Q: What sequence folds into this?
């Protein structure tokens, strides 16, 4: 991508027949905005993508945007390279597979009112959408789900003001805070859908407060450009064929290089210390969530991410964790997203990798 | 450090007799500013340090500041933790050492006029100071020098204006640009002093232009708070005793995790993938220089550090490389400094580590 | 505008018949990006606008983008409100006007190669386009031209690298610097076209160097999203009818409140100290260019805009000057653009106001 | 000031006998940090000032810091120039004054525990200190108080963690939020001390919530570098002699140029539109508090300050309001401080000016 509106590479692949536009079911990518409330690179990319698909599919962009989840994380701090992964599904003949292959399912919730953001109604909305996406993926065992990406709406100052005018009470009118609550609600929703959390085991006050509640498979983004919860479920299934498989690991903290090595090992890829160029070619996607430790320390030593008025804490941590993961992978085209509240261990997060089986040789 | 003016820990060590104030010969540290022209955390720390030493040594701070190099790099992006290393030297009886030990020497140049910053006069001034510091360290073979830290003055808009008023022509009145030229002059000066570069092999135009000229042992900082070049030379010498040794490696680029593993191996420390807690206790100091690749790509993929109007490119790269190195070391108390022009390979930099020999077991 | 892609208000005006899509000849607006190289809010707005007009006009967006200049300045620092002015022209019967009315003309240059940016070829390209736009406006006397807006292309790191690969030598590969040179070239081009500057009176080295060369009617923006120079000429002409007129004044420095009062007075509007609500309703557009004084002082006192590593200097000055002008106007919907190199007095800039004649009562 | 640690000008005035070090009772100034939690320019200035006074007064700096309030606001965005005002009081013979003159009083509260920040205990602590400062100033009528500056402590992530470890419950561990609550508590404390607010008319929940509670004479800063509340009361009193007087006005919003004109008129100074150079020489100090409107709009139009992830909202508004006020005054050496919660009208703030009576001629 030359810029957030540059879809020329996908256009070329579609024109050349490598990608069939009708096979596209989801997009996950990194754009070069700031990842905050005023990051419009995500909306710009989405508009460009939908215009492109609309041209090829002869369907209105307004309809496609409610059918194909386009989950973008803004912020390519440090060594990250702006990029996007296009998930395609095609029907094929039943092949007796040697094992499970990557499975994908998607779903959209109904639009979420501003006053519901970050509350139980939000959790429920996400949980239902995740269940729908798992069903859509045809994954039967919840253990086979490895990564659930949810893009949640948040409030801007304007949306909050509109809700207040309408007699509603948004949780907050601070947009950055709203994004954090939205991510928490998303993580709770995933945990509920995956049977990791009982609905009776939390209330509204648990969000952004009880960090023992977490899902190591939830990856939640939040942004101003969506109005409903968009869900992508990734797992392995014997009903699917193809060269790809997925694995995931929780990350204990921002220094947890072991998790990176381990998730690669799960897929048969070694890194000592860096993935070889050949194996790197087998890696289709690296998905990471991370978080500046809210207690102000990492392994006992003070960090300054939360006290920095100049650089948003999420930008700090994305840059650091991406530096670590990209160093092991040997490639900056990785998805590292901040705001990992309740997504993996507190102060840490998670990593998921999609790679082809050749990696196991 | 609780903040850039917090020297309470050193005060405690001196009060407790662990550190003798008279033994302090140099300081290298990271403070939590932005690392740019308007980073005053370095001056604040220096003022606090000199006041502390002045109190203990009964010498005026104004004199100490010209005797004890205090090299600070601003910017603890991401996982870095603000900290400082205090280098102490004490006389002892001659001990027949099994080999070489860490040696240290320091020197100060005369104050550098604003119009000399980034020009040959600056290079010469640094080279002479480096030679003086090597002599001060008692290092006989240039190969035994592993790390030369230089802190160079730069111009601010005000200094540039004053020079112009005085009829002089500063190289630039853009402070960030001035810092870059100052770092380049420092690196050339180190290369000249270490016989890596002949004075006849470059001219003023080579600075920030011919990146084939580089010293893998030069670590240059630049800041508004110094007026002369301050030099710290670190190496190994059979004339010194003590448990510590130093090693260094160039870093090819910001993803060069191999250099980190290799420099640790040089000191007998393994990381697979992370240094063990025991070995981590043997590491006294980790010193890194890095640089956003000026060609806009890392291993063929576009990075966005140089195009970001919101976050300075040096802050980006420090955060990323520190994430990588801290992940291998398992500790955020590392010195990672940006602005590695001509210091190691273009787009990369260097890493030096000081560790005790127990690490070699 | 709710966000940079929100053209719903214009859509409503077109749907309601207030605006005829075919009458739209130019757009000038402020979007809420950072105004720097990585400000994609301008591209996002432009894409959204062209899609909207394409839908109404049944012409491809790719063609419209080369017919309708869409000049956006990113950065609504402080009290500024994101907004856009749509310039429409409709044919009418010849009305014997009491005097001159607002006239507008537009033009596009050929695409500008990256290596030409900021050089004489760039100046010539702009000058020719300005002459074409003046002719297009039907303005006969150059004195009747009051404001010439030019949007110039600049280089990104990627564009610079591509040019170098192609054997060309771009002036710089620093994008922020490239934007500054592009603006300088634009101002020189306007000055040449308005007979304020002879082609023989400058050379390449004069750009960003000889600040005695300036045009008090040139307003230049630069951005990554355009490849040719886009020109909008605004003036007064007896051949045009309509309620609007335009006036302009140079601004001596960032504190020049007198220029604001004077340009309003030129249009018969008083501000003592603020424009009344009734008169404010007569003001159609306020266009300002400004610049952080490169000598580091304003009226003898040090400012810190140029030494700030955290906030770009142009963002600083836009916020300050917008605070002043909006305070006089009583409205934050003003166009204040930074980067006023050679556009009005050094360290200052210019202000132009478009208002209806009722203001004169 | 060349930088935040530069007190050379005051040193010169003391050395020259213009200022008697023993007369210094308070300092109010602007330093060039970011004004946020990690703004250490305030601590740096304070340390430098106290060292200077200590040298002249032969008293330990540690004692002076608890006797002389040093209130600094970080952030000289836009046209502001870093500067400080030194308030001196000298005993003299009783002069039958024609009227009231500027009176000043100071006070310090006891250190405030981290868990009290932003709560009623904080309000009470401030109110008591303000009453003490009024008594210290010898001001008898509360109406004669025109400006009460309070510097309040806040929590950092580290302080909050320490309090939690000690079994306490800080209001928040978000430093920026803590600063806001601290400012609110300070404003409530001033209002209580000035009999504008009854203690029974609010509770903890009113802070940062009920914005009908406000004091148009309260100016509150908050920073990590203080541990107790420091108070400076400024007013007019017939018991004091000297050429200076003070006046104040509330500011309705960030565009309220009328308040600037009016407060100057109160002191007999006209600005049409700018204060003349002669009158400007009579102005000793300009003190402004301002605030980004939390409802997201100014006079009905959306502003983007609160949604900007790159630039802190307080930096935005300081730059804008300083642009306006400096434009009227014709000088960038003004004190404009953000965070005006409950200090003047919601979304606005206040302005106070100290000028000599010659201004009235």
A:
């Amino acid at each position: 991508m030359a810029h957030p509106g540059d879809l020329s590479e996908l256009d070329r692949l579609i024109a050349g027949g490598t990608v069939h536009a009708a096979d596209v079911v989801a997009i996950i990518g990194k754009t070069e905005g700031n990842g905050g409330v005023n990051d419009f690179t995500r909306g710009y990319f989405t508009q460009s993508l939908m215009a492109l698909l609309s041209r090829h599919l002869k369907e209105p962009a307004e309809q496609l945007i409610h059918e194909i989840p386009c989950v973008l994380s803004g912020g390519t701090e440090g060594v990250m390279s702006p990029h996007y992964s296009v998930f395609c599904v095609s029907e094929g003949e039943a092949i007796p597979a040697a094992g499970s292959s990557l499975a994908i399912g998607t779903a959209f919730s109904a639009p979420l009112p501003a006053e519901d953001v970050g509350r139980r109604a939000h959790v429920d909305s996400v949980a239902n959408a995740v269940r729908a996406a798992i069903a859509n993926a045809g994954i039967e065992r919840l253990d086979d789900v490895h990564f659930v990406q949810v893009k949640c709406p948040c409030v801007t100052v304007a949306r909050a003001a509109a809700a207040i005018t309408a007699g509603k009470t948004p949780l907050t009118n601070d947009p950055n805070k709203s994004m954090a609550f939205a991510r928490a609600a998303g993580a709770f929703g995933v945990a509920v859908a995956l049977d990791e959390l009982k609905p009776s085991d939390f209330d509204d006050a648990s969000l952004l407060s009880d960090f023992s509640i977490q899902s190591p498979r939830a990856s939640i983004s939040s942004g101003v450009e969506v109005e409903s919860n968009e869900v992508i479920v990734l797992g392995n299934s014997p009903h699917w064929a193809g060269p790809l498989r997925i694995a995931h690991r929780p990350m204990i903290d921002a220094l947890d290089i072991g998790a990176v090595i381990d998730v690669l090992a799960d897929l048969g890829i070694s890194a000592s210390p860096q993935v070889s160029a050949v194996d790197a070619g087998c890696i289709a996607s690296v998905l990471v969530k991370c978080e500046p430790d809210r207690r102000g320390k990492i392994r006992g030593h003070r960090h300054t991410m939360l006290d920095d008025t100049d650089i948003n804490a999420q930008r700090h941590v994305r840059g650091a964790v991406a530096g670590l993961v990209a160093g092991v992978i040997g490639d900056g085209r990785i998805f590292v997203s901040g705001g990992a509240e309740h997504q993996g261990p507190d102060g840490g997060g998670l990593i998921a990798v999609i790679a082809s089986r050749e990696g196991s040789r």
About this structure: The mean pLDDT of chain B is 94. The first helix of chain B runs from residue 8 to 15. Chain B has three domains: 1-91, 94-242, 243-356. The CA atoms of residues 206 and 213 of chain B lie 8 Å apart.
